[in-house]
């Protein structure tokens, strides 16, 4: 066992201890398990939402995308920033309704807003289908980080298995509290590691940040701007708007919103989080440095770890690996908890409405095991199904946007029939696109080439919206008892 | 809140960053300036 692996295991043990210790003095019930009894203040909400940004993507994908695709990676901080801007307006409305109606999950939010348990089932299934690829990405990323950092002393699959075991233990014991406390350790680690590496590497190899970019400009200037086709400006604009709309509809982000103490907590977080997201630029610096220092990698996702391995002593590589491990554990644990609570509230409560709180908590914990086993099977087997799911996760969950936005106002333009029909149309469009690889030109052969780069998820969303409104208008007069308007205090 | 949506080439370099990356970073800061 080498020094790097010892350091990684030490931090894994600390994370497990914190995750279990988080439940001290609390009587665990469903509300406490899922949303911390809606008692999280600004710091915990900040850490959990920031945790959704600083996943293994920061370590592998951010630098990896820059390494292989250049400026296309800039869409990530851009969409996250716009998601926070949108959240300033949107989240207080969601939180207020959830508080007044004792809602602890995304499916129950939609079911209550539209008075439709069927819509709750649709949302629960959609959320789980979209979440599993995300959990798999975290487990796979964790395996790669630990295996690379320890110089192959442990296999990626074994590392993924240990990570899956750790989060399963502390999620079943502590629920969202475990994620909140391990997030503290994670954010301290990632703050130190990413900022240090992002400044040290450019100065060590190039003498500064601008000289590094000038070196990249000399060998491949196309990496510093958007392409004229493919990952173009049109692709960038459509993708950041689509992803900004979908960001808080991912079940794990939605759960964190519901755990907040109040509206001002959410607004304060919206203000500060774009500044925190600037840290992603340091991960990008590492990708740009790797273009020059470790050229020719077949897998760009390994660029950061290869660069760190060739620059530092094994003990420091262990610190970097430990930070990488934590960036996988925290988001994966929130995703796992959100998926189990979503299925329990969306489906189990519907089947067994008289279930006691204790039974609901037990079912949630059993679902944690079921979901992690499914995710782990995908992690070790991979396969085409996962690749497809991975591509369309965001496009799938974004199909809830029309139903969410129009839920803020009581209107004839959206009812439960329209919402369900729109979601089905949008999801079908996304599935068709994922299987056939269709682009806009497939449907409209004569469109200008630059419009062909529009993210196809936007087209699905547009179709969803139009169909949902038409169906709602058509069924509006057929509903004998009109839905009671929801009074929203501004 | 519409302003950051409206806001969000290589040279000139600003603060050591290529102009496109600087532009995105600038709008992240301006978004906070919510």
From TrEMBL, chain A:
Q: How does it sit in the membrane?
A: Multi-pass membrane protein
Q: What is its main location?
A: membrane
The organism's superkingdom is given as Bacteria
Which ranges does the record mark as transmembrane? 6-23, 43-66, 72-91, 118-137, 157-176, 188-206, 226-250, 271-295, 315-341, 362-381, 387-410, 417-434, 454-474
What the entry lists under Pfam families is as follows:
SSF (PF00474)
Q: Name one GO molecular function term.
A: transmembrane transporter activity
Q: Which locations, inside or outside the cell, does it occupy?
A: Membrane
**Alphabetical keyword list:** Membrane, Transmembrane, Transmembrane helix, Transport
Annotated Gene Ontology cellular components are: plasma membrane
Which family does the record assign? Belongs to the sodium:solute symporter (SSF) (TC 2.A.21) family.
> PANTHER family recorded for this chain?
MONOCARBOXYLIC ACID PERMEASE, SODIUM/PROLINE SYMPORTER-RELATED
What is the name of the protein in this document? Sodium:solute symporter
Organism for this UniProt entry: Lysinibacillus alkalisoli
